[in-house]
Amino acid sequence: MGLPLALKAHRQGDLVQAAAHYQRALDQQVREPVLFQNYGALLRSQGNSTAAESVYNQGLALFPHHPSILCNRANLLRQSRPASAVADSLDALRQFMAEGHNTKGLSGAWITTLSQLRELQLYSWALALAQKGLGLLGTDPQLLLQILLIFEALDSQESTISLGEADAEVIRSQIDTQLESCEPLVQAEICLGLAAHRLGRGELTQALAQFEQAMAVLHQPCSSADIEEGEKRQKLVDVNSWNFGIALLKKEYLERGWKLFDYGLRCPVEGQQRWQRAMRKPFGAASIPLWRGESLQGKRLLLLEEQAIGDAMMFLSLVPALLEEADSIGILMCDRLLPIYRRSMMELGFGERLKIWSYSDSKSGSLRPETYDLQSPIGSICQHRFTSVNHYARHTPLLKAKAQRVEQFRREYLKQGEPAERLIGISWQGGGKGVRIQQKSISSERFAQLLQPMPGIRFVSLQYGNAAPTVDQWRQQGLDVIHDGRVNPLKQMDIWLAQVAACDAVLSVANTTIHGAGGLGLPTLCLLSLHSDWRWFDDPAVTRSYWYPSVGIAREERATGWNQALLQARSWLEDGCPMPIGPVSTASG
Q1: How far is Cα 520 from Cα 516, in angstroms, rounded to an integer?
Q2: 562 vs 241: CA distance, rounded Å
Q3: Which of 25, 229, 405, 446 suits a disulfide with 3, CB 3.0-4.6 Å?
Q4: Burial of 539 by CB count in 10 Å (0-12 exposed, 13-18 middle, 19+ buried)?
Q5: Burial 301-339 (b: 16+ CB within 10 A, else e)
């Protein structure tokens, strides 16, 4: 029963149960290709590339040329062993062609192989394969997109390959003919692919033009009888608007980016969360109308917490600016953050004009819909009032820790072991799920380079999760690091915030620790990975967070990895952890 249960759990988004059932099926000697194909993909999504490759290898030992397993292994090896990935893709392509009936699989293998060859700058080979694909697959949008990208690469100054004019003209003619005959949906997909490509190359104007062209096509009315096409169009709009909006935010194009950010409320995601931006909404729009950006003068606004804890803390930093305009503001938030923000807002003197509500208040009737005139997800406020970096960080620091507890932590930590004068909070592992954790984290071995003894300095672990074994290992190496088992950041955020406030400075990867330290206004250095998310700008010339002025940035580099960032962090520690300086933005848009 292992495999059927695994497939069911996988479909329902319960990846933990799915993994357990897949492994049980493997132990029970189940020998079906879907087991190796799906289990390997799940392990890869969880960041366990080694185990995923092992599962694929076991599957291919039993089914040596199974095209779907080959495609999955090719995607796994694409970055680490590109030549092996191309070999797998070509093998899969041959198998799909031999089978002759799996058009979807054939198309996917063809596109994957073309994109791999393009990435390796094997343009002549890619074009020869593309030309054959045009005859077999016709107006497949992703095939046409790959060919256009190959031509774009050949036309760029970076390419040293020149295509014969006669051959080029034949292929261009085929593309033009097939583009003209494409359905609007296909043309939109091609425009969206090119928009994403050009945005990645920094060609913002061209990317925006092609994105808007695609949206214009997708928003055209279609036959009311064609429900399936309408659903496809809406899904394309939702998913691509969200992805493009996120990319724009990272490129510092806030005005358009924040408008598209709202598509996260309807863009699906795997797992129990269901949507990219998830929230609990106790009152419908009929009870409290949604705020659409109109004047808040004399209005009472209810803001709904959403997504992860760090996101909520970040958006909450903008609330005081809205309070300058609104008559009053209410915030509905989870129990973990309630004590922090109730105390902080009271100590900052906002009084009754700012009310913090719990979800139990809405269930019990203490919070009633007539108390407010308008409501909004807190992540949706940026599009209305925060479209320039000048609108951010106007009311920081915003957080206040419990002073008595801060002093207690500080007194205890400084007295542990050899006398110390300064406490530096540290965190080395990112949040999220699966591969995202690995992408945002730094290994304990590499992070230990930053913890080599310095006179008067003691490090304090602020890391959530099971950090004790790592700290014990560091202490055995002679590193002066504290792990306080009394503090559980995942369950006791108010106590954790006091622990953060007890530190003189903080050094952390991008996780909730940054929001705590930045909200408190502590000198902080964020070790920012190449896989940073939408809250950080991409431009390496940006050296500070636009959300938190006290948070500086040390970036992982594509060419050298963490080397330079770790040198920068060590130098910052040796210099006494000064407040960061430098630009929070470099864009004019």
Answers
A1: 6
A2: 32
A3: 25
A4: middle
A5: bbbbbbbebbbbbbbbbbbbbbbeebebbbbbbeebbbb
Per-residue model confidence (pLDDT) at position 175: 62
Instruction: Give the bridge partners for 544, in sequence order.
Output: 552
For 274, other C-beta atoms within 10 Å of its C-beta total: 11
> At 481, which helix (H) or strand (E)?
strand 481-482
Chain center to CA of 153: 28
pLDDT at 344: 94
Phi/psi for 527 (5° steps) reads: -85, 100
Chain segment 403-415, per-residue pLDDT in tens: 999 999 999 999 9
Task: From residue 33, give the alpha-carbon distance in Å to each of 59, 242, 453, 550.
Answer: 7, 34, 53, 53
Strand partners, 557: 561
Q: What value does the CA radius of gyration of the chain take, rounded to a whole number of Å? A: 27
Q: Which residues share a beta bridge with 377?
A: 304
pLDDT band at 589, cuts 50/70/90?
very low
The vertex-96 CA angle with 92 and 101, nearest 5°, equals 160
Mean pLDDT of 290-312: 94
Q: Which residues of 160-194 are buried (b: 16+ CB within 10 A; e: fewer)?
A: eeebeeeeeeebeebbeebeeebeeebbbbbbbbb
Q: What is the pTM of this model?
A: 0.80
- Structure confidence at residue 327 (pLDDT): 96
Find the helix or strand (DSSP H, E) in which 455 lies. Answer: none
Residue with tokens 């092996």: 84
State the average pLDDT over residues 467-489: 95
End-to-end C-alpha distance for the chain, whole angstroms: 57
- Give the pair of three-digit tokens for residue 368: 């009633």
446-470 b/e (C-beta count within 10 Å ≥ 16 → b): ebbebbeebeebbbbbbbbeebeeb
Q: Letter for the amino acid at 131?
A: Q
Per DSSP, the chain holds a count of helices (H) and strands (E) of 26, 10
SS percent in the chain: helix, strand, coil, step 5: 55, 10, 35
Q: How far apart are CA 501 and CA 460, in angstroms?
A: 11
Rounded Cα–Cα distance for residues 127 and 139 (Å): 16
Convert 347-397 into a string of H (helix), E (strand) and C (coil). HCCCHHHEEEECHHHHHHCCCCHHHCCEEEEHHHCHHHHCCCHHHCCCCCC
pLDDT tens digit sequence for 202-261: 888 888 998 998 999 898 887 665 677 888 889 999 999 999 999 999 999 999 999 999
Q: Is the pLDDT of residue 279 over 80?
A: yes
**Any idea how long the chain is?**
589
Instruction: List, in sequence order, the alpha helices (H) in 156-183.
Output: 165-181
Nearest CA-CA partner of 503 in 406, 399, 403:
406
Residue with token string 């709009």? 237
Type of residue found at 532: S
